[in-house]
Amino acid sequence: HSIKKKQDVMYCLRNQLNQPTPKTKEPISDDCKSQLRAEFLKQMSDLDLDPQLLTACAVDLKETCRLDGFEDKTQVMECLRKNELKLTNGCKDKVFEREVQQAEDPEIDPVLQKTCSVAISKYCSDTKGEELLSCLENNQHKSGVTHDCKTTLRLRMLKEHSNYLLNMGLRKSCKDDIKMFCKKTLEGIKNGSIQDGRGAVISCLKDNMDKISVECEDSMTTILEQEVVDYKLDPVLSRFCANDISVSCPDTPDDQVEACLRDHIMSIQSEDCTKQVVRLITEAHGDVHLDPLLMRACQKDIGYLCGRVLPGKGQIIECLQSNEARDKNALTPTCSSMLKSRVQMWSNAYQRAKQYDSALEMVDDIYRSIESSKYKHELLAYLGFSICLLVLLSFCGGRCTKSKPPSKLY
Predict the structure, then answer these.
(1) Which residue among 9, 62, 162, 264 has its CA within the 20 to 30 Å range from the CA of 123?
(2) What's the rounded Cα separation, in Å, for the pair 68 and 72?
(3) Cβ(282)–Cβ(362) under 8 Å?
């Protein structure tokens, strides 16, 4: 009973911290904030001190993550995180509440603090509060970051990419953009028709990359760059393209799967996956940094010819193309060859997008790039032939279908 009372006071104080302090009230002191953080760290380290979660997860702590199955009590919460899809609804909601708390203040995340202690002291010692997780993510590939730390960070990143409420940077920089462009998505989450744990809001922001604010675009670019090197961080792509990945990109390393899907755009079977890969190609066209192969092939050319051009909105691609249009020898052979292959890829994406009206809007900029390419005529001829062939096959298929007698019904 005393633990529950103490917990009620802790959450009352936490709610006060998250609200603007009225001028008539005395703000919570720094000493109180420090003590409150220490108490929450204790609670997150030992679920016996969290009666709310114990009650909500009573069944789950017997069947999925047994309390007596871990020598280190901090691993119980980690087990609940990893097994989100197996949890009962009440437990899932309560675990998510704790995840939001830790996202808002990573200093009360005991597993992160323990596994990444060396990285924190080496790279993020001056970083406090919610920015600590971003600092660790930005430095995770540097020397001294242990395997255990990387494993912990990846689980946190998977959750961040699945639910925007766990990504503090995105929540702040895209707050107004989400309200403006993702109203229907938010309504769907509220009425239960959409599960935001599947990346719905972030997917909505991706669909509106050409409309969102500069601050939001910066946060979204970070997300896209992370997904390039680990496609599993993109829950929508992972779900819709699972079969196509197993067919077209088996045994492909995670950091090359997106490139593989782009290369196989013409052979992808499902409509949902096709739309996702068209989106990938559009994003990489908009920001060359999302296309590691093109970036590597054209790095010197970009530095020499387009050094003052800001990334985003296809401006670097436009710079490379305009330089090549003025002088066919302006680009290095490696860059010119890779750019030609990318123009072909854009043409393929445009062709596939024409099959689905909802994907056509994404490829407006790509079509302009095809038109400004020195390979324009051969690509548009190929594109026109392919579209005519598709129409002809559809027509013939319809005629053949009509000529068949109706099936007997038994």
Answers:
(1) 162
(2) 10
(3) yes
183-191 and 200-207 helices, crossing angle to 10° = 160
Which helix (H) or strand (E) is 171 found in, with range? helix 168-173
pTM: 0.79
- pLDDT score for 57: 96
- The answer to whether 272 and 240 are in contact (CB under 8 A) is yes
Give me 65's structure tokens: 């993550």
Q: Which amino acid is at 19?
A: Q
Cα separation of 104 and 112, whole Å? 13
Amino acid 310: pLDDT? 86
- Written as one letter, the residue type at 351 is Q
- Please state, as a whole number, how many other Cβ atoms lie within 10 Å of the Cβ of residue 247: 13
Tally: H helices and E strands in the chain? 26, 0
Dihedral sign, Cα of residue 83, residue 88, residue 93, residue 97? negative
Model confidence pLDDT, tens digit, residues 259-305: 999 999 999 989 999 999 999 998 998 899 999 999 999 999 999 99
Looking at residue 72, its amino acid is D
